């Protein structure tokens, strides 16, 4: 058992609580904070994959699964899988967690347990990982990295610090924490202010509009718009109109929300949730176009697959524990109490923990400009200069 453990907290969306597994390109979440792990939770076969699984899979509180949905037009039958040859499970044991409680197949047994938020989620995750290691003592010596994406940039650094504090206090079981990984992480309130400079740099808006926005809004956009500043509001609405057909999580992808005959209208307050729920719009679409080519299409396949009764039985989902599976839960009572995690990054770095923070260069939700800005605010020395990243002789980034 010498492989490292990667604990992945799947948290997608800045304003909404959406959960999906993208590190392995598989939306297969079947972990519950309420269900104990045992040998009876081992899975050897999965509906949609014709062979015995060529890897260890255990559901309940742990999931190791290098499978991807086969993306093809949905014909009413159970979606099928193909092996993902680039799976991280080749080098790591990976634990995916549905968090906070109420997302995926995780559930609460009492009404008070449904009340969650940033800090409550962190507390639950610390307890989850302790109990998981107690049930799996063979993994205690393995190096541990904790990973997340998007809104996990708020909760994950706090979680890592809580685990680190427990290690220093001698809390058992011992956790061999080595570091953490974050992709396009929301980190502090100023992240929003880099959306418009990003859009300008990507030529989505004109120089004239950008300069006018800077003058009128004083560099404060989105949540910081003053309703009394009519000039700023007018220019911002012009900005919204310019990007209304752009898929903000990847500006090069088609915006599949437009597949709906009556797409949801953009508003300043709900822009962040539009693309997050676009697979619902795909369900209602009457468009004859092949929308299975959209990035959201696997989300539809996951909905069909994971709500199949045979699949739920194969995944050992306890009957009556939770109703229909939804990728994004918009109804959770959630308390947003952590505004910035920059100081957590500084503290963890000072303690010697390793971190990998990466950004996609076409993400306008949490632009790479925002990530660069807070990293630079830490005033660390650059020891390796900016360079090309080459794959098979081609520049990939």
TrEMBL record:
GO BP term (any one): secondary metabolic process
A Pfam family hit: Peptidase_S10
Keyword Secreted attributed: no
InterPro entries in the cross-refs: AB_hydrolase_fold (IPR029058), Peptidase_S10 (IPR001563)
Annotated GO MF terms: acyltransferase activity, transferring groups other than amino-acyl groups; serine-type carboxypeptidase activity
Signal sequence range: 1-39
Keyword Signal: yes
The entry's keywords: Signal
Family: Belongs to the peptidase S10 family.
Protein name (database record): Serine carboxypeptidase-like 18
Lineage of source species: Eukaryota, Viridiplantae, Streptophyta, Embryophyta, Tracheophyta
């Amino acid at each position: 058992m010498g492989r490292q453990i990667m604990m992945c907290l799947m948290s997608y969306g800045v304003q909404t609580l959406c959960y999906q597994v993208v590190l392995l390109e598989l939306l297969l979440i079947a972990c519950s904070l309420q269900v104990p792990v045992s040998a009876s939770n081992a899975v050897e076969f999965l509906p949609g994959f014709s062979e015995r699984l060529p890897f260890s899979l255990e559901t309940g509180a742990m999931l190791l699964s290098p499978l991807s949905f086969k993306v093809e037009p949905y014909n009413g039958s159970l979606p099928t899988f193909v092996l993902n040859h680039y799976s991280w499970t080749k080098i790591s044991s990976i634990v995916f967690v549905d968090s906070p409680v109420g997302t995926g197949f995780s559930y609460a047994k009492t009404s008070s347990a449904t009340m969650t938020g940033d800090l409550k989620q962190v507390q639950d995750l610390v307890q989850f990982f302790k109990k998981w290691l107690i049930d799996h003592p063979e993994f205690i010596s393995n190096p541990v990295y904790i990973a997340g994406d998007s809104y996990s940039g708020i909760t994950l650094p706090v979680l890592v610090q809580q685990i680190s504090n427990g290690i220093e206090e001698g809390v058992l079981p011992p956790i061999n924490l080595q570091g953490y990984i974050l992709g396009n992480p929301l980190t502090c309130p100023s992240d929003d202010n880099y959306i418009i400079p990003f859009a300008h740099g990507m030529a989505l808006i004109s120089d004239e509009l950008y300069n006018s926005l800077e003058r009128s809004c004083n560099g404060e956009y989105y949540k910081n718009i003053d309703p009394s500043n009519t000039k700023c509001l007018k220019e911002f609405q012009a900005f919204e109109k310019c990007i209304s057909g752009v898929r903000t999580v990847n500006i090069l992808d088609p915006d599949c929300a437009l597949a709906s005959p009556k797409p949801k209208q953009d508003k300043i307050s709900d822009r962040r949730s539009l693309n997050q729920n676009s697979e619902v719009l795909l369900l209602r679409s009457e468009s004859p176009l092949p929308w299975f080519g959209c990035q959201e299409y696997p989300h539809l396949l996951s909905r069909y697959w994971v709500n199949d009764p045979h699949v739920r039985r194969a995944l050992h989902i306890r009957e009556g524990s939770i109703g229909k599976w939804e990728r994004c839960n918009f109804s959770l009572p959630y308390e947003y109490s952590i505004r910035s995690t920059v100081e957590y990054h500084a503290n963890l770095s000072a303690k010697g923990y390793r971190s990998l923070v990466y950004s996609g260069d076409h993400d306008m939700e949490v632009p790479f400009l925002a990530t660069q800005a807070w990293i630079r605010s830490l005033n660390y020395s650059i020891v390796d200069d900016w360079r090309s990243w080459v794959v098979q002789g081609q520049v990939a980034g």
